[in-house]
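Recall the central idea of this unit: under ordinary conditions, the amino acid sequence of a chain determines the structure it adopts. In this exercise we apply that idea directly, starting from the sequence alone.
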Amino acid sequence: MPFALGDRNGKVVLYVAGENIETSSLIANHITRNPSGQYTIVDTFTVPMTKLDYVIEKSNKVIGRVAAHIDPAKIGVEECEMHVLRGAEKSLGRGMLERFLIEVHKD
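Accordingly, the structure predicted from this sequence is:
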């Protein structure tokens, strides 16, 4: 999907890491002060951000089918996991999201 998931609807800056594109993030410090390697930012892009609640509520329009129950959901978003979870509060409260696989880093 051509958008980032987070805790609000709007636009955010995506920082692209030069030496390891997998460390690209919405958080610049995650790239420049990463304990596994300090990388340079080679580019930035402004990208749309939306809540997972919105994607689920409007799933027929957004993904072309109704998403009534998601199990499991995988989140690997380079230190923005809590933002994604906060953007899914309604869906979590309704039991629409059952289990998560969440990538976390010790830093």
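Residues 4-102 form one domain.
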